[in-house]
Design a protein that fits this description.
- By secondary structure, this protein is of the alpha+beta class.
- It is built from six helices and seven strands.
- The protein has a four-stranded antiparallel sheet, covered by helices on one side.
- Strand 2 and strand 3 form a beta hairpin.
- The radius of gyration is 22 Å and the shape is elongated.
């Protein structure tokens, strides 16, 4: 029996690799799933300062890695954070959102208690608004995708497909 050597990081790296084309490769899939997320502070209070902003971006990246994802871009304003996140296909996005909001809130309360107390009163008052914004992103427009899908039944596409099968049959 052959023994597999290497630590968990080596195995993780082999499971999820990003190639030059920007697509991620898992064990059984190739994917590019990115999401634009916005979380707003409770009552849109202007809690986030520069120091907190840096900590949020850093901690968000740490949280994404826990889900085998990656923060592609992050930016804050005084009352919200924007995240561009790449996640694997087996990630439940709503679980990710709930986790990152909860953990960001805990971490910021731990690191910046005085800053937060100036704007959000009481330990039981949530840091983030209950709502959030999320949208999927893509490298092409919806219209381009629609046209591509609709072209799959075109005579031109069928002819290309047929010539591939003919070449394959001749080689066999």
């Amino acid at each position: 029996m052959k023994r597999i050597s290497g630590n968990a990081d080596d195995i993780k790296d082999k499971k999820d690799r990003v190639k030059k084309d920007g697509y991620n490769r898992g064990q059984h899939c190739i994917y590019c799933l990115t999401y634009h997320m916005i979380f707003v502070t409770h009552y849109r209070k202007p809690v986030i300062n520069e120091e907190m902003s840096s900590a949020m971006k850093e901690f968000s990246n740490h949280m994404a890695e826990q889900f085998r994802g990656k923060i592609l871009s992050a930016e804050t304003d005084r009352d919200h954070i924007h995240l561009l996140v790449s996640l694997p296909p087996n990630t439940n996005v709503s679980v990710f959102v709930r986790s990152i909001k909860t953990q960001l809130s805990r971490e910021m309360r731990k690191r910046f208690p005085e800053q937060i107390k100036q704007y959000i009163y009481g330990d039981d008052t949530s840091f983030w608004s209950r709502s959030y914004f999320i949208a999927t992103t893509g490298s092409v427009s919806l219209e381009t995708l629609k046209q591509y899908i609709e072209s799959q039944r075109s005579e031109e596409h069928q002819a290309k497909r047929g010539s591939k099968f003919q070449k394959k049959n001749l080689l066999e």
